[in-house]
Write a structure and sequence with these properties.
This protein is α/β, with parallel strands linked by helices. The protein is built from 6 helices and 17 strands. Strands 1, 2, 3, 4, 5, 6, 7, 8 and 9 form a 9-stranded mixed sheet that branches. A 6-stranded mixed sheet has the order 10-11-12-13-16-17. A hairpin with a 2-residue loop joins strand 14 (155-156) and strand 15 (159-160). Helix 3 (170-181) crosses helix 5 (218-225). It is globular, with a radius of gyration of 17 Å. 49% of the residues are buried.
Length: 251
């Protein structure tokens, strides 16, 4: 059995999943509107954590201890610009923990991931799909039965990550989403790294049909993304250097 953990219990016995959700829907960090995800095999207690945030390390480690989990891998979906990862500090506090990130991120890690790699936890695993466009090092993590996809900043709920910094490329992102995420089953649940409106989960089918950016033609999408004129992320000058070294720069 797999647990997807955040806080309140939702039991999906028919699929062998157990899911814990907070009122916000996940392990949420409010300043950067970042969702952290924790998944575990309920039999072996082996667990992985996705996109942990520095400011919430104590909360996350407390939950892991309460649930009696053995955290084996901390994986980042890309080198974040809006927050500092807690991965490096987690490695100092959790014996045997390994860090993981895309080979193309340019960041330090114990495991450098590429297309098709698997991150095992107990009898289960996450499969890596390379989904560049927001950055060159963006990945999407898909459960073995393709019922859940953790899309990082590539695909958000009714949106997508920006493409105007850190090797961003709108054309790459369009192809990534359409070829790597929208080809998953319609009912596959989408869990993004961020949401700014309180939304927690979508599906591949919903986003393929209703996402206002990614239902456009590629030419329309590129034109839109190239003219968003968004402000520079507040923490980019601190976060990126820190995240390139597992979150330990100036911490």
């Amino acid at each position: 059995m797999v647990q997807y953990i955040s806080r309140t219990l939702w039991n999906l016995c028919q699929k062998g999943f157990r899911q814990f959700l907070s009122q916000k829907g996940g392990l949420f960090e409010s300043e950067s509107s970042t969702y952290t995800y924790l998944l575990a095999d309920t039999n072996t207690k082996e667990a992985v954590i996705i996109d942990p945030v520095l400011e919430t390390i104590d909360r996350d480690l407390k939950l892991i201890k309460e649930l009696g989990l053995n955290l084996t891998v901390a994986v980042n979906t890309h080198c974040h610009a809006d927050h500092i990862t807690s991965t490096g500090l987690m490695k100092q506090r959790v014996a045997g923990l390994k860090s993981a990130i895309s080979k193309f991120s340019g960041a330090t890690a114990d495991i450098h991931l590429t297309e098709g790699d698997n991150i095992p936890f107990g009898r289960h695993s996450l499969t890596v799909k390379e989904t560049p466009g927001h950055t060159d090092g963006c990945i999407t993590l898909v459960t073995g039965d393709q019922t859940m996809a953790f899309t990082g900043d590539a695909l958000l709920i009714r949106g997508c990550g920006r493409t105007d910094f850190q090797q961003g490329c709108a054309e790459k992102l369009y192809h990534s989403v359409h070829e790597k995420i929208f080809t998953l089953p319609d009912e596959c649940l989408i869990y993004p790294a961020h949401d700014y409106l309180g939304q927690t989960v979508s599906t591949v089918g919903e986003e393929r049909k209703f996402n206002p950016r990614l239902t456009k033609s590629m030419e329309e999408f590129v034109e839109l993304m190239n003219n968003l004129n968004l402000p520079k992320p507040k923490k980019i000058d601190i976060s990126v250097p820190a995240n390139l070294v597992c979150g330990l720069h100036h911490v």
